[in-house]
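Work Package 3 committed the consortium to producing structural models of liganded targets before the mid-term review. Because experimental data for this complex are still outstanding, the team generated a predictive model from sequence and the ligand definition alone, so that downstream docking and mutagenesis planning could proceed in parallel. The input record is reproduced below exactly as it was submitted to the modelling pipeline, together with the SMILES string for flavin-adenine dinucleotide.
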Amino acid sequence: MAARKAHVVGGGLAGMAVAACLARRKWDVTVHERSSELREIGAGIFLKENSLRVLEELGCHDSVMSRSHWIKHTFINDRPGHYLRRFSYGPERVVTILRAELHRELANAAAKWGARILLSSQVTRVSPMGMVVTPSGEERADVVIGADGIRSIVRQQTGLETRARPMGSGSTRVIIPRKEGDLIDTSGEYWRGHKRVLVAPVSKDIIYLCASSREGDPRGISLPFDIGYWSEAFPELSDYFSRIAPGIGVHHVHEYIKVSEWHRGRIVLIGDAAHGQPPNLGQGAGMAISNGQALARELDRTPDVEVALKNWERECRKFTLQVQNWSIGWEYCMHRWPLAFEGLRAHAVIALANFPPTSRHWKRVYRGVQSDDSIGL
Ligand SMILES: Cc1cc2nc3c(=O)[nH]c(=O)nc-3n(C[C@H](O)[C@H](O)[C@H](O)COP(=O)(O)OP(=O)(O)OC[C@H]3O[C@@H](n4cnc5c(N)ncnc54)[C@H](O)[C@@H]3O)c2cc1C
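The resulting structure, written out as tokens with the ligand in place, is given here.
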């Protein structure tokens, strides 16, 4: 029997992961990436249990881990010298890696399992019958996977009801050289008013910084990064900021996407195209990768594609939306909290962290796993 065909629109982390998972199951997979080269921005990314398990299946886990940095402890510092929360992850895996390295690993895995990766291949039209149109022609597939990010053209063309909402805040990401004495196996968040800085080592030589503020704060969002302004707000981090090389840094506005359904006919959405979210839980890519694996599994075992897409959405949607909602809630807490009651924010966070039902739920969404048992919570 001829292999079933999948066209994946978008060669980002979500697209490469689902392409690799399907190709491993002997599907005939084509990835269309509109850029002329595979690129990721110069920043770090957190990977947790859910995505690491997919890498094991794809055979690139060891290679990713050899390029990753294991984070053992974390903290939130909500005023100079004061730690709102500190904890250790224990044996559980939370790692950081440069985004470009992760992307390369996933692209290599997709190619190794036999997926074709077409660059400069911008998809201009899709249809629920499984048709994909690019400048080089029209093709039909058993399934079309829209992994084309937050402004997804695939989503627009399905006509699914979509709510896309900018959250009024954004993040600037940079990497800097690591110095002796910097954080090594620990990541930390620093909060001041509506600003937040994440500091995370991604190797023994590199530190990843992510500085978030409201979009209405012109110096907070400016590029080049305003070292003086951020050092005033976070004097304890001024040494880190002083290492930011001129001209580096990327800024992204935080937004979320909610779509009434993730599939129509033979089209399905995955990753930011389906559930873009503010980056507070470090789970946007993690959920995309683990949902990609679940999608490949379901498509492979259910001959009727439309039934498979329905089953998959039933399996993944509820938990993914819970992760997204926590991330949105965290965003309000961080960037919209009335500053007149800033002290109360700490109490609210501690109460949520210590109240058993919310604490257990938080642990699951933070790690991207639905069942407590599998990670020994
Ligand atoms: C500040 C910040 C920090 C983050 N930190 C983390 C973290 O620590 N951990 C984590 O798991 N997640 C994190 N995320 C989220 C994560 O980055 C995203 O969820 C993930 O990168 C989305 O991947 P994607 O493949 O769905 O979309 P994208 O990365 O947007 O990829 C879409 C691809 O589709 C291509 N494309 C678009 N249209 C077309 C078309 N018509 N034809 C062909 N190709 C097309 C684009 O060129 C692009 O390559 C963070 C996000 C931000 C903003």
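Reviewers should note the following from the model. The chain has a mean pLDDT of 94. These observations will guide the Year 2 experiments.
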